[in-house]
Amino acid sequence: MSKKVATIGGDGVGPELVKCMLDVVDATSVNIEFIQIEAGATWWKKHGGTSLIPNESWEVLNEADACFKSPTTTPGGIGSPKSVAVSIRQRFNLYANVRPIKTFPNTNPPLGDVDFVCVREGTEGLYAGKEMQLNDNMHIALRLITRDACNRVARYAFEEADRRCWKTVVAIHKSNILKQTCGAFLEEVNNVSVEYPGIEVWEYHIDNIAQQLIKNPQIFNQSILLSTNLFMDVISEECSGLVGSIGLIYSSNIGDNYAMFEPAHGSAPKYAGMDKVNPVATILAGALMLDILVKRASRKHFSLLLIRVIAERRLVALTYDLEGSAKSVK
After folding, report:
1. Of 22, 130, 178, 274, which has the maximum CB count within 10 A?
2. For 99-126, what is each residue's pLDDT tens digit?
3. What DSSP line would sit under 86-126, residue for residue?
4. pLDDT score, position 273
5. If we measure between CA atoms, which residue out of 240, 8, 212, 40 comes closest to residue 120?
6. Helix boundaries (H) for the chain
7. CA distances from 299 to 15, 112, 114, 284, 323 (A)
């Protein structure tokens, strides 16, 4: 029986990138039905409302086995809807946002070769969106942290380390200041660690690891970097810069019964229709989707092919972010 994937073309360069992914996946003859749905700022600007995702798209998402999301734009400002990614993560309890960070050969990484995985709690923290205005001068945002969510994402991080035969989980926090919220996160990480005696826990304050990732990123190689929602959102973006192009970074959002796959970068509206944005992250996100949905070892196969293309450094085969002149679609 075929799997169903709700597919969001998104905004900006999203539609052209998702086409690249679909072309590659189609060549594998895999038994997946891709159902195109609307979501994002482009749709919202036409139709308005309180969500970037229309009701009919939610119906498809609810019936699908997984979601593939190309980059979407999130409007800012008071009263605007929450992002497409946050909405889907919270609806389906996709508690582990997973972003592998690994240098591609011959890409001139700015600070040397790196190889680790960022795991981010995906459902709460400041992204719970609990804000309020107390008076004309004062606005507050609540940082929602539950032990259940901390335990789930910590367990995923240790299991990911175990699958890779890695020996370190790096817990990133600020418990000296945020004594209850970060304190609860850190306690749950240590509670889970008891079940994995062969894996060590390194504790880093968020400000310190931001420095260490620039000063000496290789000390984190073959480690899982783990943190709460906003902290890891920022840190994983810094880590993406270590590979030289965020156009190479893909991610997954994992829950117990559902998953969403996406490139890590944004919608880059200024490049829309120019056929120049790197499709590697989108293609690898699709390959990871095949790994999980139909148990095909596609990510490794696709990665090897893309590594070969990038390593040859033929500029006609590389996009502009890798100093080449290749087009992404044509």
Report:
1. 22
2. 999 998 877 788 999 999 999 999 999 9
3. HHHHHHTT--EEEEEEEPPTTS--TT---EEEEEEE-S-EE
4. 81
5. 240
6. 14-26, 41-47, 55-63, 84-91, 147-164, 181-193, 206-215, 229-241, 280-294, 298-312
7. 22, 23, 19, 6, 25
- Whole-number Å distance between alpha carbons of 107 and 96: 28
Residue whose pair of structure tokens reads 């972003």 in the numeric block: 99
Query: How many angstroms separate the CA atoms of 193 and 155, rounded?
Result: 8
**Number of neighbours of residue 200 by Cβ within 10 angstroms:** 14
Distance (Å) of CA 327 to CA 16, 277, 278: 11, 8, 8
pLDDT tens-digit series, residues 184-232: 999 999 999 999 999 999 999 999 999 999 999 999 999 999 999 999 9
Distances (CA, A) of 194 to 2, 55, 121, 126, 157: 40, 44, 20, 28, 13
Q: What is the distance between the alpha carbons of residues 320 and 277, in angstroms, rounded to a whole number?
A: 7
Residue 252 near residue 198 (C-beta atoms within 8 A): no
Q: Which of 237, 245, 250, 260 is nearest to 285 (CA)?
A: 250
Neighbours of 168 (CB within 10 A): 17
Tokens of 25: 């996946």
Q: Which domains does the chain have, with CATH numbers?
A: 1-99+245-330 (3.40.718.10), 110-115+123-242 (3.40.718.10)
As a whole number of angstroms, the distance between CA 315 and CA 282 comes to 20
Tokens coding 4:
């169903």
Decide if pLDDT at 297 tops 80: no
Rg from Cα positions in the chain: 20
0.85 surpassed by pTM: yes
Residue at token pair 């229709």? 273
